[in-house]
Amino acid sequence: MTAREILDILRSDPEAAQLFELPKQFEQLREEMNARFDAMQEYVDRRFDEVDERFNEVDRRFDEVDERFNEVDQRFDEVDRRFDASDARHDRTEQRLDRIEKDLGFLKGRDRERWFRDNAKNIFGRFMKRPQIVDLPELEEILGEDTLSEEHRDLIALADLIVRGIGRDSQREVFAVLEASWKIDSGDVERARRRAAVLRQYGVHAVPVVGGVETVEAFELPEDVTMFIEGKVYNAPLLR
To answer: 115: Cβ–Cβ under 8 A, 6 or more apart, which residues?
Structure first.
């Protein structure tokens, strides 16, 4: 029996014939599985493309946010520059105002000094007999030649006004050492006291005096200082 005859016999048997269909079925199954894998691969690729697109969209949005933040930063930088420029202008204005205030204070102080000098006899004449303004050369003659040290001479020369007279009650010679200012403060008091103390070292009765139009807030007048302010006199007995 030949091989063909054997094959013909097997094909005539239904159960045996199924064996000859197996390769074909395996091929069909393989093609079906490949098609499914291709479809799955296409689905996965498509989903990954969608995810990539979404990530790209998120990246674009983040880029937009970054750009907006950059714009905000630029605006804040501009605001900072404007504030810096404004602060600089404000500082310059403050400096100018400080200079103007100092200049005005100086001019006002000079005006008060001139007023006290022009009206010294009337102002001090209420408390002293024969009041007269004493300048540094006259003071040196009174104290004696070469009596004042150079340091004391320089300090006394800075006094706004020195008035000499006889106290109406004490009948003794009095030297009023005046510091004039528009607005009296503790600095004026200390300068008057320091210069009066220098004169007392040379054996004369010197009284520190301050005079002006107003005082700074919370100002307290020491008991050893006379003050003239707006027509009023405080501690006047020190001059009498």
So the answer is: 180
